[in-house]
Design goal:
Radius of gyration: 21 Å
Number of domains: 1
Number of strands: 0
Length: 48
């Protein structure tokens, strides 16, 4: 009885954790892209 219960309790948090990790990775990627764009914009006069 313990094994099926463990499986269901592990599966739920696993999916939640996966979504959380994916969301945080996407957020960090967006922030990184925005930061790079801001860097390029602030350094645009020098480059051009």
């Amino acid at each position: 009885m313990n094994t099926p219960e463990n499986k269901t309790t592990v599966e739920g948090p696993n999916i939640l954790g996966f979504i959380l990790i994916g969301a945080s990775a996407l957020l960090s990627l967006v922030i990184l892209v925005l930061w790079i764009r801001w860097l390029y914009n602030s350094g645009a006069p020098k480059c051009k």
